[in-house]
Amino acid sequence: MSDIAIFTAIQRLVHGSGALNQLAEEVDRFGRRRILLVTDPGLVKAGIAGRALDRLAGRDVEVFPDVEPDPSIETVVACADRVRALGCDLIVGLGGGSAIDTAKCASVMATNPGRVEDYLGIDKVAVPGVPKIIVPTTAGTGSEVTNVAVLSLKAQHTKKGIVSRYLLADTAILDPELTLGLPAAVTAATGMDALTHAIEAYVSRFAQPMTDDFALKAIRLIGENLRTAVHHGQNIRARDAMLTASLYAGYAFGSAATGMVHGLAMPLGGQFNIPHGIANAVLLPHVMRWNLVAALPRYRDVAAALGETVGHLSVREGAERAVAAVEALSRDVGIPVHLDDLSVPRSAMDALARDGMTNVRQIRPNPRDVTYEGLMDILARAFRPEA
């Protein structure tokens, strides 16, 4: 744990079934003239973007519907150009992590000079962005409450992040009804993404009492509700619990950071177009097992939060239960177990490990000192044993 605790949070949160109905009221609080709704084609087709537009009737609203999964720098540039060209003074980001991160990045690129690449890293954004309201439609990224956005660098086949207080939403609206139509596979992937955020935050070297509380609550909620949300998708209580868990995990990792699950998931996703939640979910138990020796008591706490009975076990045995519980949850919600299942070749291990070693933002918080050899060990374990 760090000796100095810094906790980051957004200004305003509206949460509850039907909260989307508050969108117009929240928009009007800003007194803005022109709004850009940032979303993706799937939400337009599903009618969810239309529901948001209905609630903004009578206001000057333009739509940027072109966000792709794992958004590229080019998409952010196009969105920021739209903000400037239309003179928009408020952004509403509606969608999963991709739409949210695009909205957050476009917000600051509309007010800051230069290229998006200039701002990759920590605290490089100098000027506040266009105000933004974020409305998540998945329960996983927690991006609605974090100061982080992740973008795909297509030419380099990897992903990198921007970290800035100016990426924080001014308002987040969390409505579990917006997640009722999520397919089971998306629910599983985003739910395991939230679990990864919570676990990595809890074992982080930057963990603090407040992030610990949020992380453990998130882990507990996910352990109790993800299976139901995946297999009984219309269960509003499970959906709301998962949205709350994602929020708590976002608060946790927004201040405590993530570790080498994310440090490897970013190049894995960038090189093989694997959705971020799936990449995290597959890597999570393997990174946990490698990290175990550096944070045994904390991993035992994770096991307990996931519902495991660990009081009669040694610290190591309890910690090992955490890995087993994560593997069981992944299997139960249909997550692939090994990188082979994602068509990743063993020959990619060296490039993935080398790329992972450049992710200092994940290396520093990781509970165990990270080396190239260590990352190769993690990746080797993530493949099926060779015959």
From TrEMBL:
<dbReference type="Pfam" id="PF25137">
    <property type="entry name" value="ADH_Fe_C"/>
</dbReference>
<comment type="similarity">
    <text>Belongs to the iron-containing alcohol dehydrogenase family.</text>
</comment>
<keyword id="KW-0560">Oxidoreductase</keyword>
<dbReference type="InterPro" id="IPR001670">
    <property type="entry name" value="ADH_Fe/GldA"/>
</dbReference>
<dbReference type="InterPro" id="IPR018211">
    <property type="entry name" value="ADH_Fe_CS"/>
</dbReference>
<dbReference type="GO" id="GO:0004022">
    <property type="term" value="F:alcohol dehydrogenase (NAD+) activity"/>
</dbReference>
<dbReference type="InterPro" id="IPR039697">
    <property type="entry name" value="Alcohol_dehydrogenase_Fe"/>
</dbReference>
<feature type="domain" description="Alcohol dehydrogenase iron-type/glycerol dehydrogenase GldA">
    <location>
        <begin position="12"/>
        <end position="176"/>
    </location>
</feature>
<dbReference type="InterPro" id="IPR056798">
    <property type="entry name" value="ADH_Fe_C"/>
</dbReference>
<protein>
    <recommendedName>
        <fullName>Alcohol dehydrogenase 2</fullName>
    </recommendedName>
</protein>
<keyword id="KW-0520">NAD</keyword>
<feature type="domain" description="Fe-containing alcohol dehydrogenase-like C-terminal">
    <location>
        <begin position="187"/>
        <end position="382"/>
    </location>
</feature>
<dbReference type="GO" id="GO:0046872">
    <property type="term" value="F:metal ion binding"/>
</dbReference>
<dbReference type="Pfam" id="PF00465">
    <property type="entry name" value="Fe-ADH"/>
</dbReference>
